[in-house]
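Work package 3, deliverable 3.1, input record:
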Amino acid sequence: MKLKLLLMIPALLSGFAFAGGTPEFVALPEGYNKQINYMSQNRIGQEQFAKMYARQNLLQAIADGNPVPEGSTIVMEVYEPKRDRDNNVIKGSGGSYLIDHKKAIAVMEYRNEWPAAMPANERAGNWGFALYGTDGKPKANDLDCAACHWQLRRVNYLFTTVPMKNHIASSH
Ligand code: HEC
């Protein structure tokens, strides 16, 4: 009994401290892949490929320097690249990694107000976070999403402001 409890502690701790976002508040947006795929490129500092999806009104607001619209979502599909026999990542023309399989789906959601039960330290500004598996179920992970994105507070806590602006500029 005692041993069992002790064994459970790491699992409990990781569940509380390192859930990697709050999927109980931030849902996987239905049909997100019908939204605008404003960027597809190798991830920064990681041997993975990412595809980003958002709605037109968010991209336009960022391009115009307007406030983020209530209810905005951004989805980042994360892909593992193909590797050769020596485990090196295989690149296609232009340097993009060739996709092997989808690994996870990261979500950000913007609300002017969140329920009081949503921990403030799980947010970056008004953005909430969650990570999902390819089965659409919350994915366990040890990332502190808010801490990393908080560093981008001067640009709406977003890493991909420039690709958003470029998308709007190129669609005119
Ligand atoms: C180590 C820092 C770091 C952590 C931790 C982190 N991110 Fe990010 N995030 C980034 C970077 C850098 C990008 C730009 C794309 C890339 O190269 O990965 C990004 C991009 C994103 C985007 C696309 C919107 C944007 O900001 O450009 C979403 C959505 C996102 N992250 C969700 C999450 C979620 C959900 C978590 C937690 C499970 C998380 N992130 C944890 C660094 C981080």
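The pocket of heme C is lined by residues 20-21, 43-44, 50, 52, 74, 76, 106-108, 129-131, 141, 143-145, 148-149, 158-160 (CB under 6 Å).
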